[in-house]
Design goal:
The complex is a heterodimer of chains A (about 475) and B (about 325).
Chain A: E1 32-33, H1 38-45, H2 48-70, H3 79-100, H4 103-107, H5 112-119, H6 144-155, H7 157-160, H8 164-184, H9 189-194, H10 196-205, E2 210-214, H11 217-221, H12 227-231, H13 252-256, E3 262-266, H14 282-303, H15 307-314, H16 319-351, H17 357-364, H18 368-384, H19 388-396, H20 418-445, H21 451-473
Antiparallel strand pairs in A: 1-3, 2-3
Helix pairs in contact in A: 2-3, 2-8, 3-8, 3-18, 3-19, 5-8, 6-10, 6-14, 14-16, 14-17, 14-18, 14-21, 15-16, 16-17, 16-21, 18-20, 18-21, 20-21
Chain B: H1 2-31, E1 34-37, E2 45-46, E3 49-53, E4 58-64, E5 69-73, E6 81-83, E7 89-93, E8 99-104, E9 117-123, H2 136-140, H3 160-166, H4 177-182, H5 185-193, H6 203-216, H7 220-238, H8 249-253, H9 278-281, H10 286-295, H11 311-321
Parallel strand pairs in B: 1-4, 3-9
Antiparallel strand pairs in B: 1-2, 4-7, 5-6, 5-8, 8-9
Helix pairs in contact in B: 3-6, 5-6, 7-11, 10-11
The chains are: A mainly alpha (about 475), B alpha+beta (about 325).
């Protein structure tokens, strides 16, 4: 917040960093500022479009909860299950995140009432604002709570993903939690520190082709008011935005900047990763590993051939379920972090690196981001593609009571996805693997030590993971 | 300011629509008579008891909340209809006579599947419900819980067709249906063995004559019906081969262990009877078996089928049970 630094894309050599200018530090001309297009500009400047979309998602959210509570108990015939875990989840993993980063956060209904209370109005800021506006405790910063939340949901996922009532109660609980936190803490405390979705959306947003960035810092240095910071519901300082992990693409800063100095850039994929100067933290490394471990665990439980494993995941409270919990937690808390730490450590020792292990782990964890993103895309394809016909039928019969509102209740559209889906998953896992390998290369090139020795164990780790997931999904 | 209020109205209307549509639909839905089927462990049929009138069609909408079930009504000619999870099945019932009918599930849905029953109380004009005759085992004074056993068993499976080929005239006393119903196969065998006119036949050939007698007291249609009833209702516990080794046999023997541990079948249940054991089966008369089927086993886990099967169906089932001991095909 103090010294405006020269930005990577400003075309000038950086003054505060010691790294040499590198080929992937792109000058701003290689980023397309979408605000330059008048129709995009007017869409974003007005509050109405985003408000309407959010009002609709809120309405859909409420409908989902009520359908889940009152409708048929049979998951495949209930709007709540199909639209949350098939339709929305697929949209999130295949569209929102890879192409828009944290774009779902800009239309998510969960923090909406909290936002309204905090700003004292739906469309415009009002005079009467509610909330204590306390600071989020420093100790609870980072994504540790989000990783824990994700793991917690994972323990009960078998029942949550199939029982409409449980899904409804979980959504209601998150809704209530978000509103409560908004009344106590400032900004989007729920979204930044609690929401399990926000956690992984944030880390994967760094691979996405969209970003919000300040255009010319010199303009900011003469602007005393810093309206962008005052208006950001996420509590971010746009001038200091170095990566897209925390920015929810709400566009408030774009709207409030009197100098039109904030851009919404289209940029190459993966622009935020591969930079060791970036202060990546252990919490992000842990979250990246949890995402990998969960992908393996859920593939095994939900799409695997082991009936006893699936039954154990369902029988909550039973000894079998406790074994499943132990296995799940061991995988995510011990095996994945342990193996990765080992790989990083071996790489450091072998290459004679002087970096502290914590820092090395945090740096190398960027390699896991494309891998995890694509692993989840592949896994989502594996379970969602064969079930798309349920999306059509549940639109006509959302409560599973034999309705046929749009005539699609008995949608016989059952495309044979078996061959096509498998090929797609393999291709996607391969893309993730090679992209991750290239990130490893980028990271290693910045260090004076031997790239090969430092990265080889990490490459072995990601290869092992890819093979394991490939075997679970396809084999 | 106007914009703000407009925004509030829009948001509130959308939210209201999202709440009232399903809420209203749910209210309408709960006013109707949709019957929800669940495994017996989690509630069975809801509602469980219904009323109807003679001659007035009863429209029912059925849905399942968990697994596949099926709906059938005992003692009337109504084919079973599948009750599918998340979907609605419609069925219309019409009753000719007043009385208390039982409806039940005919798709094995859990270990307590047979407990999924409900009643339909039908009122109205019609023949007065007569007091039913007591079942044969009661009239005969049979103790159907007593152990029964015979040491006299055939060397190979007796065949009715072989018995027919012997072309022997059987003493009249043993030929009528009353005798068949009230005597066990081994009792008939001993009676025949004692007949001097049959001295020249071997033990096995006399068994073939017993099998022939059993065959002559039933029809191929009854045997076929019995076979179907067995497959639908009995095989899950008693096994397809009749050896008491059905899917749920282990759970009935030891309710707290095994794959379905926690699915309580009841206290003190025992392993299902083995119909392939000649010592056991050949010492049971048709009346004895009918009694077991009608009344169920006291504390053994055997369901009672009295309200479900008609008398004709019960005798057909009994006839089929003997096919585990006898070859009742018309051709050898």
């Amino acid at each position: 917040m103090n010294q405006p630094r020269e930005l990577p894309w400003s075309g000038r050599p950086s003054q505060t960093e010691s790294e040499p200018a590198s080929p992937w530090r792109l000058p701003i001309s290689q980023r397309i500022n979408l605000i330059r297009f008048p129709w995009i500009r007017s869409l974003l400047q007005s509050r109405w479009p985003q408000f309407l979309v959010r009002a609709l998602t809120l309405s859909g959210f409420i409908f989902t909860i009520v359908a889940g509570l009152l409708g048929s108990r049979v998951g495949s015939h209930n709007f709540a299950i199909i639209f949350v875990w098939i339709a929305w989840w697929t949209a999130l993993k295949l569209a929102f995140i890879p192409f828009g980063g944290r774009s779902w956060c800009s239309v998510c209904p969960i923090p909406l009432p909290g936002d309204w209370l905090q700003q004292g109005g739906l469309l415009e800021k009002g005079r009467h604002r509610f909330g204590l506006n306390l600071r989020w405790p420093k100790r609870m910063h980072g994504s540790w709570l989000q990783s824990s939340g994700f793991l917690l949901v994972g323990l009960f996922s078998a029942v949550t993903l199939t029982d409409p009532r449980v899904t409804a109660w979980v959504l209601l609980a998150l809704f209530g939690l978000a509103i409560s936190l908004s009344l106590v803490f400032e900004h989007r405390a729920f979204c930044s520190y609690i929401c399990p979705i926000g956690g992984f959306t944030g880390i994967y947003a760094q691979t996405s082709p969209v970003e919000v960035r300040v255009i010319d810092t010199r303009i900011c240095s003469t602007h005393k008011d810093k309206t962008c910071y005052r208006n950001c519901p996420w509590g971010l300082y746009p001038l200091a935005l170095r990566d897209s992990a925390q920015c929810g693409l709400c566009m408030e800063c774009v709207r409030s900047c009197p100098k039109d100095n904030i851009a919404v850039n289209l940029r190459p994929f993966g622009s935020d990763i591969g930079q060791t100067a970036r202060a990546s933290h252990l919490d992000e490394a842990f979250l990246a590993l949890v995402m990998l471990g969960s992908a393996l665990a859920f593939s095994a439980v939900f799409t695997g051939p082991w009936g006893s494993l699936k039954s154990a995941a369902f029988a909550i409270g039973s000894p079998a379920w406790l074994l499943y919990v132990l296995g799940f937690l061991a995988l995510n808390l011990m095996v994945m972090p342990g193996l990765f730490t080992l790989a990083v450590w071996i790489g450091q020792r072998w290459s004679g690196g002087k970096t502290q292990l914590r820092r090395a782990i945090a740096n190398q964890s960027q390699v896991l981001l494309p891998l995890g993103l694509f692993a989840w895309i592949a896994f989502t394809i594996s379970f969602a593609f064969p079930k798309f016909n349920t999306v059509l039928s549940v639109i006509s019969d959302p409560l599973g009571w034999g309705w046929n509102l749009l005539g699609t209740a008995n949608a016989a559209w059952l495309p044979d996805v078996s061959g096509f889906s498998a090929v797609l998953q393999i291709a996607i896992l391969l893309i993730g693997l090679f992209w991750s390998a290239s990130v490893a290369q980028r990271i290693a090139k910045r260090s004076p030590q031997s790239y090969f020795r430092q990265e080889l164990p990490v490459l072995a780790f990601i290869l092992l993971f890819s093979l394991a997931l490939l075997w679970l999904l396809i084999g | 300011m106007i914009k703000e209020w407009l925004a509030r109205v829009i948001a509130a209307s959308l939210a209201l629509v999202a709440v009232t549509i399903p809420l209203g639909a749910w209210w309408v839905h709960s006013q109707g008579t949709t019957i929800h089927a669940r495994m017996a462990e989690t509630g069975g049929w809801t509602p469980e008891n219904m009323t109807a009138e003679v001659g007035k069609p009863l429209h029912l909408r059925l849905t399942s909340d968990d697994v596949m079930h099926s709906f059938a009504v005992g003692q009337i000619d109504q084919p079973a209809v599948d009750v599918i999870p998340g979907e609605i099945t419609e069925v219309t019932l019409t009753f000719d006579r007043p009385g208390k009918y039982s409806f039940y599930c005919t798709r094995w849905c859990s270990i307590n599947h047979w407990r999924m029953r409900g009643t339909i109380e039908v009122t109205g004009p019609g023949t007065e419900t007569e007091a039913a005759d007591p079942p044969l085992y009661v009239i005969l004074g049979l103790d159907i819980d007593a152990d029964h056993h015979t040491d006299v068993v055939p060397e190979q499976m007796p065949s009715a067709a072989r018995g027919a080929q012997l072309d022997v005239s059987i003493p009249g006393a043993t030929l009528n249906q009353e005798y068949y119903l009230s005597h066990s196969p081994v009792e008939l065998w001993k009676a025949l063995r004692g007949e001097s006119s049959l001295n020249r036949w071997s033990d096995q050939e006399v068994w073939d004559l017993v099998a022939l007698n059993w065959r002559s007291n039933t029809t191929p249609q009854a045997l076929q019906e019995g076979k179907q009833l067995y497959a639908e209702n009995c095989a899950a516990c008693h096994g397809e081969s009749g050896a008491g080794d059905g899917v749920f046999a282990n759970e009935l023997e030891q309710p707290d262990t095994g794959e379905h541990a926690g699915m309580q079948a009841g206290e003190m249940t025992t392993r299902p009877a083995d119909f392939t054991d000649p010592a056991h089966m050949l010492s049971a008369s048709p009346a004895h078996l009918q009694g077991k089927i009608l009344r169920g086993g006291m504390g053994t886990g055997m369901p009672y089928w009295g309200p479900i099967f008609t008398e004709k169906q019960t005798w057909a089932l009994v006839a089929h049970l003997y096919t585990f001991q006898f070859d009742l095909e018309d051709r050898p």
